[in-house]
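We were asked to recover a plausible sequence for a given structure. The inputs and outputs are reproduced exactly as logged, with field labels preserved.

PROBLEM: sequence recovery
POSITIONS: 229
GIVEN STRUCTURE:
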């Protein structure tokens, strides 16, 4: 609330405005992801067939829910709690805030707004990933008519969707100015480190794609970050 000439104004404060922008941006990101998954799944099923090969190990079966929940829970909690508290983070949530020691208020606001803007750019980039992946999209496993996707972002790293998820986890941290998404990001990165070799083993075990994927691995050695991972 603001006070103008002794009168109480209903105009939102800067903090409320930033929280509102962050909530809207987070909602837009999840709306995009859910929409693309909902539209891509039936097309993939119709064109490339059902998933015929899935992990047999216990960890292979639970790893996708683990990384999914670690990204979704902090952000969904944020967009559920903040609007119902008049676009102010509740006290229990503020206890998980990033330190303000190193940043002035204006710098903090600038970083949060920049993270929101970067999220919209990442949405566009993620759309390109889904376009190139096409009918090969799946949570984990191989479809009946499997093929090795090597175009677009897949010509740079072998798992560009996971890279986008990790970047978004960092952006969620800045948008909400909270350690909670950062903890989720750490869990997600660990889950991806386990999941990617499992996925690649399934591909290599498929005679239809084994040789092509081995050649692809030599040509594109990076899984997530060129020269690093």
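RECOVERED SEQUENCE:
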């Amino acid at each position: 609330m603001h006070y103008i000439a002794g009168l109480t104004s209903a105009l939102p404060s800067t903090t409320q405005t930033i929280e509102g922008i962050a909530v809207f941006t987070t909602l837009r990101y999840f709306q995009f992801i859910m929409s693309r998954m909902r539209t891509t799944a039936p097309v993939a099923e119709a064109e490339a067939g059902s998933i015929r090969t899935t992990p047999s190990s216990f960890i292979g079966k639970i790893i996708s829910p683990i990384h999914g929940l670690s990204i979704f829970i902090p952000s969904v909690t944020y967009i559920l709690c903040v609007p119902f508290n008049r676009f102010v983070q509740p006290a229990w949530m503020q206890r998980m805030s990033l330190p303000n020691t190193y940043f002035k208020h204006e710098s903090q606001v600038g970083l949060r707004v920049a993270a929101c803007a970067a999220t919209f750019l990442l949405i566009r980039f993620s759309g390109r990933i889904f376009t190139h992946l096409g009918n090969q999209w799946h949570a984990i496993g191989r479809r009946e008519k499997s093929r090795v996707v090597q175009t677009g972002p897949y010509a740079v790293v072998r798992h560009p969707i996971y890279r986008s998820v990790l970047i978004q986890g960092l952006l969620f941290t800045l948008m909400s100015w909270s350690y909670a998404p950062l903890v989720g990001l750490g869990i997600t990165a660990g889950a991806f480190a386990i999941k990617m070799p499992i996925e690649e083993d399934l591909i290599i075990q498929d005679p239809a794609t084994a040789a092509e994927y081995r050649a692809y691995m030599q040509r594109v050695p990076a899984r997530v970050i060129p020269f690093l991972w």
